[in-house]
Amino acid sequence: MTFDGPLSASAYELLGVAASADDSELRRAYRTRLRQTHPDTGGDAALFVRVQRAWELIGTPEARARYDRSSGSWAAPATSGRRSGTRPGTRSYGTAGAWHRLRYLELLTEHVGRGVTAREAVDPAVVRSAPWQARRMLAEALSEEATASTIDDLGIGFTAWHDLVAGADAAQKLSHAVLGPAGLYGLTSEDFGDAVRFRQGEVIGAAVGGETPVADLLVRVRAISRAARVRFAGAILILPDEQLDEAVTVLGSVRGVLVAVVRRSALRTVLRGGIPGARPLGAVEAFDVRTRLPQAARVLVP
After folding, report:
1. pLDDT of the residue at 175
2. Residues 113 and 251 in one domain
3. Of 214, 222, 292, 295, whose CB has the highest number of CB atoms within 10 Å?
4. Residues 62, 99: one domain?
5. Is 261 left (phi over 0), alpha (psi -120 to 50) or beta?
6. HSE-up of residue 166 (Cα within 13 Å, Cβ side)
7. CATH code for position 62
8. Does any domain span residue 27?
9. 207 vs 8, 145, 183, 222, 296, CA distance in Å?
10. Is the model's pTM score more than 0.70?
11. Phi-psi region of 204 (alpha: psi -120 to 50; beta: other; left: phi over 0)
12. Distance CA 38, CA 144 (A)
């Protein structure tokens, strides 16, 4: 269980205190939260466990200092969407996460009323105090960057496009399109900050609210498919491992497209083998994809 995402409740938030609370305030808050969340008194068992974990992280001066130092490693990677090393990696186009990071900086600047440096923007205190929509932009960027790191390590037989859009509306971009031996897949990286469930082919949960991530992904996949006249083998929604009970959940054919929700740690395996039941591309079809996709769609370069 982690508390390190921009949308995840921090250890302090789980205990209901400010980060500036003294040790006695922290201890009282912990005891209060234990009583409120204990399953024997009608509390939420999952929240009870999270409260205990929060206390482990900040309950002693040593642990608290360690947590405060490490909380929020949100700086942009030096080579987002690019692979380092000597072994040939995936051929990649575009910079994963860059568009959402730019939106985050714009919203944060509006919130504080002045220019914000790159270092200030990823300071844990600044991120935690930012409006929810700004934090959501940063969470999206981090998710896309983490997924791109996995994609870029797939190997020479794969081609990837990050932040791909077929029309004029950049907000309707597809986070990733990946072409490999198992076919062409459209991917969206998300982080809701809490566990999710499924109902009628869609992701649901308290943190998801009224959003429809699967439906949104399919709209973007179809837009690219129509514009480039290419066929996607499937669509994949990627979430942090702790937000899913299973490594891979195949939702089946949703509106004519095969859909799976996948833990990020399982993504490499899924992309190499494909979603069960998906139709892989032949060599000629793969060549057509590599030709048509860049002609009909563009990668966003902020």
Report:
1. 96
2. yes
3. 214
4. no
5. beta
6. 18
7. 1.10.287.110
8. yes
9. 9, 21, 32, 26, 35
10. yes
11. beta
12. 36
Q: Does some domain include residue 17?
A: yes
Output helix, strand, coil percentages for the chain, rounded to the nearest 5.
45, 15, 35
Query: How many structural domains are present in the chain?
Result: 2
Does residue 184 lie within any of the structural domains?
A: yes
pLDDT of residue 30: 94
Return the pLDDT at 87: 59
Give dist(CA 177, CA 126) in Å, integer.
33
Count of alpha carbons within 13 angstroms of residue 210, beta-carbon side? 0
Is there a single domain that holds both residue 127 and residue 168?
yes
Q: Any residues with CB less than 8 A from the CB of 249 and at least 6 apart, and which?
A: 198, 260, 261, 262
Q: What are the per-10-residue average pLDDT scores of the chain (302 residues)?
A: 65 86 93 92 84 89 81 58 60 94 94 87 84 92 93 93 93 95 95 90 91 95 95 95 92 88 96 90 90 94 69
What are the residues facing 253 on neighbouring strands?
A: 258
pLDDT score, position 73? 60
User: What pLDDT shows up at residue 154?
Assistant: 93
Q: How far is residue 43 from each of residues 11, 49, 161, measured CA to CA in Å?
A: 18, 11, 46
User: Structural domain of residue 175, as residue ranges?
Assistant: 91-299
Q: Quote the pLDDT of residue 57.
A: 86
- Does 83 reside within a domain? no
Q: Tell whether 156 and 244 lie within a shared domain.
A: yes
Cβ contacts of residue 24 below 8 Å, gap of 6+? none
pLDDT number for residue 71: 60
What are the b/e assignments for 141-163, b being 16+ CB within 10 Å?
A: bbbbbbbbbbbbebeeebbbbbb
Instruction: Dump the DSSP string for 172-197.
Output: G-EEEEEEETTEEEEEEE---SS--E
Q: What is the pLDDT of residue 80?
A: 46
